[in-house]
Amino acid sequence: AAQHWLGRVTTPHRQDDDEHALVAKSLRPELRSLEVSDAFVRLGRTLAAVRVPGLAFVKEVQSDATEWVCEYVPGQSFSELCQRAWHQGQGVPVEVALGVGQAALAIASAAQKATDRAHGALCAREVLITAEGHVALTDHGLVNAVGAAGGRVDREGLAPELGRADATTDVFGVAAIIYEALAGAPPEPDA
Predict the structure, then answer these.
(1) Partners of 40 in the beta sheet?
(2) pLDDT above 70 covers what percent of the chain?
(3) CA 39 – CA 87 distance, rounded (Å)
(4) Collapsing DSSP states into helix, strand and coil, what is residue 101?
(5) Residue 41: how many other CB atoms lie within 10 Å
(6) Cα 49–168–93 angle (5° rounding)?
(7) Exposed / middle / buried, residue 51 (Cβ in 10 Å: 0-12, 13-18, 19+)
(8) Residue 190 burial (10 A CB sphere; 0-12, 13-18, 19+)
(9) Is the dihedral of CA 21, 46, 160, 109 positive or negative?
(10) Which of 26, 32, 94, 175 is the most buried (most CB within 10 A)?
């Protein structure tokens, strides 16, 4: 199991009836207040009811309200890829940064239409690039839901209005993704 800002993520596995590998994401014990658990369950059930291309789907929400079983998206975060490019002295081409930002916003916008909820935490760490070069998003609206319910969320490059996100928050997120790609680091929290 790996650690995630939210808690624990299990090793990917397949069940006989699933065409996709799955992981379980569980809440850290300190996030298991009634308000955060409620937000986690409501969002998980909303996401389980929709399928949006490019957005990792939630298969089920465990009855104890502290775990989602969701699609595993193999890939690297755009943040990791940007850091590697900068470390190698190459930087990230502007057209790549703009393309990834545009694709992330398109997925987030489609998911917002399907769920009536902004992603609220678009940043280079939340954007995955698959081996095929496709852009994918995970945890649609999760950081925002946990933050709004009083859970401590400490993430670089997130919109300052965390906890009350709308479509403009996702536009900020795209700008932060492009900034990180071109500058080599996420924007400062107070910038």
Answers:
(1) none
(2) 80
(3) 38
(4) helix
(5) 18
(6) 95
(7) exposed
(8) exposed
(9) positive
(10) 26
Residue 80 · residue 87 · CB < 8 Å = no
Residues forming a β-bridge with 136: 128
Average pLDDT, integer, range 2-24: 75
pLDDT band per the 50, 70, 90 thresholds, residue 98: very high
**Contact (CB, 8 A) for 123 and 171:** no
- Token pair, residue 130, equals 């698959």
- Residue 124 — very low, low, confident or very high, per pLDDT cuts 50/70/90? confident
Q: How far apart are CA 141 and CA 129, in angstroms?
A: 19
pLDDT surpassing 70 at residue 5 = no
What pLDDT is stored for residue 81 in this prediction?
93
Residue that has been written with the tokens 């398109």 in this structure: 106
**CA–CA gap between residue 82 and residue 102 (Å, rounded):** 16
CA distance linking residue 156 with residue 43, whole number of Å:
23
Which residue in this structure is represented by tokens 């969002």?
43
